[in-house]
Amino acid sequence: MTNEVLLTIAGLQLMDGEEETPVELVTGGNYYYRNGKHYILYDEVMEGCSDHIQNIIKIEEDKLEVIKKGLSGVHMIFEKGKQNLTTYATPFGDIKVGILAHRIEVKESETDVDVHVDYSLDLNEQYLAACSIRINVKSKDAGNFRLS
């Protein structure tokens, strides 16, 4: 895979009694592979703000990590069957986040990496939602870019 990639992140939250809340981000980023792990780096711009958030996604066979630095900061770890706790620092205050991954699926090819994670999300030690995240990383020169 090339260093320059197109990244699609599609998330879905299913909260009790509410409609699904889909979110999707498509952006360019940088990719590298080191020590059996895929790394994707990209910047995220916040609406109405001049600052940005630096993001690192680290993908292993059975683990996903998302690290955000800048205006907001967090280090989220998704491991199947393991509850991971972290603090999400926002401009409005800190939030305790719990993540319990139920499924992690990683598919790799020469031109792209697909990741699908189903997990439960807790905020401040209270169950919030069943969630799903799909990540597609595709070489910019691969052509036929598709949304996950």
Description:
By secondary structure, this protein is mainly beta. It has one domain (4-141): Beta Barrel (Lipocalin). It is 0% helix and 72% strand. It has no helices and ten strands. The chain has strands at residues 4-14, 21-34, 37-45, 52-60, 63-70, 74-79, 83-90, 93-108, 112-123, 126-139. It has a ten-stranded antiparallel β-sheet, with no helix packed on it. It is globular, with a radius of gyration of 15 Å. It starts with a strand and ends in a 9-residue tail after the last strand. The mean pLDDT is 90.
Report the helical percentage.
under 10%
Indicate the overall shape. globular
> What is the CATH first-level class name?
Mainly Beta
Under CATH, the topology can be stated as: Lipocalin
Task: Based on the model shown, name its key terms.
single chain, 148 residues, mainly beta, Lipocalin, ten-stranded antiparallel β-sheet, globular
Summarize the structure.
With 148 residues, the protein is mainly beta.
Question: How would you summarize the topology of this molecule?
Answer:
Elements: E1 4-14, E2 21-34, E3 37-45, E4 52-60, E5 63-70, E6 74-79, E7 83-90, E8 93-108, E9 112-123, E10 126-139
Antiparallel strand pairs: 1-2, 1-10, 2-3, 3-4, 4-5, 5-6, 7-8, 8-9, 9-10
